[in-house]
Amino acid sequence: LMDFALATRYYSPKIVSQASLCNGTSLYVSSPCGDHHTTPSSLQTALQSTPCSTPTPPTPTDHIYALSPSPPSYVLCAPLHHSSFKTFHKIFTDSRVPYILRFNGDHAPGADNVGLQGYGVTMMIKDMEYKAMDDKEKGKEEGDGEEEAEKEVSDVVLGVKLEGVRKAFPENAGDIGVLEEKLREKEAETDHVADINLAVWQMQDLGYQAAYKTLKASNPLQALTTIAQDFPRHANTLSKISFANYKRVQKALKLHGDAHYNNPYYPEEGGSALYINNEAVDISELSSHALFEKLLNIHKKTTSVAAAVGWNENGDRTDPNTTKAILEQIKKIDVNTPDMKNPKKTAAKPPSARYTFDADRVSFVNDIEKDEMYEDWNPRMMGLPPLPRKNVFTFINILDPSSRDSAGVGQMVLMLLRQMAPIRIGLVFVNPDYQTDTEERVSITNGDGAESKTITAREAVACGFYKLMEASPQQAFTFLFRLRMTGRGERISVAEAQSVFGGSDITEAVTEECVRRLKEDTEYVAAKGMLTDKISSLFNGIHSENNPQAVMVHFQPEIETVMPLLKELKATPDPYTYILRTLKAVEKHQTALSEKARAVTAHPSSSLPHFLALPWVHHPKYNFEATPTSILLVIHEKAASSLDILSDLAAFMDSEGAKAVRAAVIVKHEDGSLRTLCGLDTAAKIIEKVEGKTVVESSCEFQAALKDLNVPNVSENIVVVNGRVVKVSTADGVHLTPRFDSGDINTAVEQGLSLANDVASVVTGVQWAEVVPGSQTIADEATSGWVSSKIAVLSSILSSGDVGGAADIGIPHVTQQQRRLGFKVASPRKADAKDHFVSLDVIAVLNPLSEEAQKVTAVLHALGSILPAEISVYLNPLPNMNTIPLRSFYRFAIEPKVKFTPEGSVATPSVTFTRLPESQVMTMGVHEPEPWIVTTKEAFYDLDNIKLDDVKANILMAKYELDYILVSGSCIDGYTGQPPRGLPLVLTHTTEGDSTDTLVMSNLGYFQLKARPGLWDMTVQRGGKAEKMYEIQPVPVLVDSFDGKSLQVKVARREGMEGEDLLREDEAPEEPEEKEEEGGLYSTLTSYIGGKGAKKNVDEGAVVERKKPTLNIFSVATGHLYERFLKIMIHTTMQHATKKEGSRVKFWFLNNYLSPQFKENIHKMAEKWGFDVGLVTYKWPKWLRRQTQKQRIIWGYKVLFLDVLFPLDVDKIIYVDADQIVKSDLHELASLDLKGRAVGYTPFCIKNANEETLGFRFWDSGYWKEHLAGRPYHISAIYVVDLVKFRRIAAGDQYRVMYDNLSQDPNSLSNLDQDLPNYAQNVVPIFSLPEHWLWCETWCSQESKAQAKTIDLCNNPLTKTPKLVNAKRIVPEWESYDKIIDDFEKGLEKEEM
Q1: Looking at per-residue confidence, does 853 or 618 come out higher?
Q2: What pLDDT digit, counting tens, does each position of 362-380 carry?
Q3: What is the rounded distance in angstroms from the CA atom of residue 736 to the CA atom of residue 717?
Q4: Quick check: 478 and 422 in contact, CB under 8 A?
Q5: Which residue from 698, 746, 375 is spatially nearest to 588, judged by alpha carbons?
Q6: How far is CA 120 from the centre of its chain?
């Protein structure tokens, strides 16, 4: 694996991040005590006199030399090549003083850049409906844009007239078909034209034809790679493979599909999946660095398992062949990955813990099976699998009725009801303070002026809700919804509840029965371990706390979980109870039992003697057989709870659940020494000692430390079950936490029992008498104890992420039909001394004509060279295609080893395309890993419009550069449990001072910041309302990998700020002219996730302070032609901009797609014409549905990220299309009063319309006309955004929510950058700019051109004239502008020469 690690540069960010923790590039030693030593003598003197004992907190990348048991205090920053490094190291070792080593070198950004891999590159054939190529690229005028006539399929291939051959030899039709395929294959190899203009009937069976071509090849993997990665060149040839040849493939696939597609863990028809050692790999996230981490985890795990079985580097306890045989069996154990052969088995052991809850205690809002509103419910219409109309999904909310945030659940419930979501929703009210009973009681005066009985706010809300539920669930949840929107405090008052409740006296609802119900429900929830003062919920028994998105998080995974149970769910009258029973829901929630497992040890050669030395207690009916489960109880000598947990252990060991369990007790003394509870063999003797309180007196010496068993040395009593560490809880006196008891021990055992039994079946199957000298049979106390220890250690390794990631080392099962559609790949790498027992079992299920196949085939080629691998590939094509599945050529950069140039230097990984079509226009795209922000560094030609006919060189080369690694995550307000939308965050480098900022979105509380390897601090932006409201200590962020950093940040409110809203302005904002639409699904949805809310939920408080007047102009361009237009737009803007003192213009450009030439020249142009330049970028978040076409991606950037794209001190931005000519001072537009709106757009020439294109105005009829309801449809070529207002009303969040909903339909948002803001006018109102701000020949009359302040070169759907031709015709002075820019750039070239 080291070869692959070096090839991927996996450790480069770690080295750079270490250097950032040091000061400068010299060698020195420092410590928290103020030491700073640069010479060996200074360090030696300090260590001999008064060495520092204050520990230095280590970072994950530090090298710690643990030369004594004490934690290290000293840090040695040293370039490894430094001549004194060896001397300093020797001083530390001779003094036995532990220290931290950090590599210190010169790693400034841009210095010594290294070549990276793990990215994909596409060459996509462009749709040239509108010609967008720069005539300078080829030195001649662009063509007239006529499309080539559709070619007819020729029957003459490479000079052979096939029809004549068929007529001459009719009896050899099959052989002639084979001949035709070979001839067309050869023709495709020599033809540099990609013909993807196929008729629909030619596309239908392309998947089967590709599968047939792959399976009949002598090298199927290479054939599949070629077909997937170069599909445009092979599409035509594949479509001509006759049905007679591929019909068997089609039949086998259909047989396979009938048997297998009902398994939710197998890809659906046309889907793809990759499994490495039974771990599902996310293909979309697959990169070289992610692959290395996975292989490293597998390597660690497998060597740990081998060690536990018996092999180690110093010798064999068992012989290697036995170890290898056991390993092969262990590889087949299913730990927590879905069992693809037996989905029922998988469903019986889900990854999430579930808890029972009495449905009779719940007030349910709806009933999917009985309510009339679901009579016509159709799961297919919602994109769901064929679910029965039953209460398959139950969502129970446990709420404190006096909490205003709990009342906000009403919003979410209304949303789900309006969406017709197939979820039964219920609610239970509890009183988190019921033990102290400190809540104020208030008297309510009735209509006659007499006082009613005294009630608490919790009683008022809970009983008022229950009373309204009797009339209508809608009324009850509207009651909660209004309570959320009323008032500003954290708590709801009795008066507020009375006000919202209506005319009747709310005290009438507060009956003795209701108060008793509140008390009983509270005690029930407390006994369940779910009582908290935050919102709590159960989704089909899966518990979530303080997670407002719980229903969204769990719904989709739960569909996959219940799909294997569909047959039973249809038959049972109570799906909720059936699911909980089948998925083994437990009775109460213990936080410790849901924590991540921990390994006892990964090196049993040292731990096994300690296991064997422990006195084990067994069940009374123990028969000397090996036990699958081993429990270690670690108790404190004088802790009051020690006797309690001992008693519980005794009770459990005497129960039926302990028949296959053994237990040992370790006692921690005050002096830190350990003893074991000895003289025991049955639970009865434990009980005797507990009753006699003689625990200490009955303990024996234990010659080991807890670390020898890898058990944490913590203050609590702990129970360790096969390596899983569980801290024993006690009641805290305020919020009842259920005491850890014998039932919880039983739950911990059951949670690991399936794995333990699987491991036991493997280990006990070995003939140990032949392997271990002196042993007799497995039913021998010594041997069974030794084997039981192995089982415990193996179980801990397999279930623990500490040893290296996920836990599975098996492979998924496939049907016999699928095997006929697959092939094996021989691995060039064989096992050697370095790999020992490490090998890979790789299964790829691939749609041969998919983007996944394009990437995975490249990875499969490399995998077998990295580690010994058994690779199986199964084809899963998509039937009945009606569109071209792939429009691009593809390559994936992955190198198993470092390569060197002939001169001996390290070669940069790269990808190469050969035999590309020369006459067709293509665009190059890089598909980098998710956390990377990549830009073009070198490219002589236009990468957006590549036409190889016009390339004079033999090679077209492009270089890209990794600019930033992302720090992203979600932020939660600790007080409300909601995202603090609009919260400004700043990330600052601790030594270099670089900083970047962003806002927290209400969409999942998401934030995104750009960084480079090193140590950064993240905090709330200083100044303004945010700092007044929130306090957040600087969060250190160490960026030390190519994977970036994903953070979960919780911010705390300052005292007295509990009722404040960051985005609430002090005075009511000016109301827009249009009345905002009330109600409706979208209105409710955006309100729930933090989008549109009550009008008062906006803020004048300074998210940013307004700076001096500045004209900020934003534009995007891709391709040399549009950059040419962009430079003219800049020139004409500056030509007309005011020159008064103090004014300045700054242009902001999207960096993602700019050419290196533009970025180099634009700064020189800025110097000449006196403007500023800012390059911005933002990574499209993974959770937001993505576009695949470059043009639509750019459209998305124009509108979806306006709130987070620019620095927070930019308060207003004007977007101007690159192909515009500006004819007036844009300061005038910047100062225009938008009448309270956040955005201003120009309507599509309503008063002065072009009569010739009236038929193309889709917004004047049908759906759009109805939706707009009299509002104008606006053009997005120029618009102004008041970013202060835009951020204040969370307009970006609302755009993103609406986009994510609408984009589910691929046919919606045809003109994304225009359709979205126009569609959203009822939520984000648009101020209509005067029409003279934009003139476009396509839509506007010629008469209005004279008044135009800007001219846009819109595409004309009537003529489809090329853009460049239009520019020269519509704007007579355009060529003179172009010449000014051209002369300027030629002057720069001369200067460089």
Answers
A1: 853
A2: 989 899 999 988 888 888 6
A3: 19
A4: no
A5: 746
A6: 19
Nearest-angstrom CA–CA distance, 164 and 1092: 71
Q: Which residue has the higher pLDDT, 296 or 441?
A: 296
* Sheet-wide strand order for 1014-1020: 995-999, 984-989, 1014-1020, 1035-1039
CA distance 221 to 475: 62
pLDDT at residue 228 tops 80:
yes
Q: Return the bridge partners of 997, or none.
A: 986
228 vs 850: CA distance, rounded Å: 7
Name the token pair of 4: 């692959």
Q: What is the mean pLDDT of residues 94-116?
A: 78
DSSP annotation string for 633-695:
EEEETT-HHHHHHHHHHHHHHTSGGGTTEEEEEEEE-TTS-EEEE-S--SHHHHHHHHHHT-T
Q: Is the dihedral of CA 1242, 1243, 1244, 1247 positive or negative?
A: negative
Structure tokens at 1220: 């515009």
Q: Give the pLDDT of residue 597.
A: 39
In this structure, are strands 1326-1328 and 1274-1282 parallel, antiparallel, or unpaired?
unpaired
Least Cα distance to 1323 among 1282, 1301, 1300, 1293 occurs for 1293
Distance separating alpha carbons of residues 1213 and 632, to the nearest angstrom:
64
pLDDT band at 192 (very low <50, low <70, confident <90, very high): low
Instruction: Let me know the angle formed at the C-alpha of 1325 by 1319 and 1331, rounded to the nearest 5 degrees.
Output: 85
Given its phi and psi angles, is residue 1056 left (phi above 0), alpha (psi -120 to 50 degrees) or beta? left
pTM for the full predicted model: 0.76
3-state helix, strand, coil in the chain (%, to 5): 40, 20, 45
CA gap 1280, 1326 in Å, rounded: 10
- What are the beta bridge partners of residue 467? none
With vertex at residue 751, the alpha carbon angle to CA 747 and CA 757, rounded to the nearest 5 degrees, is 120
Candidates 210, 205, 243, 209; CA nearest to 225 is 210
The Cα–Cα gap between 721 and 226 comes to 51
Buried b (16+ CB within 10 A) or exposed e, 188-209: beeebebbbebeeebbbbbbbb
Cβ(749)–Cβ(655) below 8 Å: no
Per-residue pLDDT, averaged over 27-55, amounts to 89
- What does the alpha-carbon distance between residue 771 and residue 695 come to, in Å, rounded to a whole number? 39
Q: What is the number of alpha carbons within 13 Å of residue 359 lying toward its C-beta? A: 18
995 backbone dihedrals φ, ψ, rounded to 5°: -145, 155
Through-space distance between the first and last CA atoms of the chain, rounded to whole angstroms:
47
Mean pLDDT confidence for 716-723: 83
841 or 319: which carries more pLDDT confidence? 841
The whole-angstrom separation of Cα 1335 and Cα 1339 is: 8
Question: Per residue, what are the HEC states of 1011-1075?
Answer: ECCEEEEEEECCCHHHHHHEECCCEEEEECCCCCEEEEEEEEECCCCCCCCCCCCCCCCCCCCCC
Give 1306's contacts (C-beta < 8 A, 6+ positions apart).
none
The residue whose two tokens read 């956040």 is: 1238
Confidence band, pLDDT 50/70/90 cuts, at residue 598: very low
Name, in order, each residue with C-beta under 8 angstroms of 167's C-beta and a sequence gap of 6 or more.
Answer: none
In the chain, what's the furthest Cα-to-Cα distance?
111
Q: For residue 691, how many other CB atoms are within 10 A of its CB?
A: 11
Q: What is the mean pLDDT of the chain?
A: 80
SS3 393: strand
Sheet bearing 822-825, strands edge to edge: 279-281, 273-276, 840-846, 869-875, 822-825
Residue with tokens 């939520």: 1323
Measure Cα distances from 1254 to 152, 856, 1251, 1265 in Å: 36, 49, 5, 14
Residue 1000: which of 966, 1034, 968 has the closest Cα?
Answer: 968
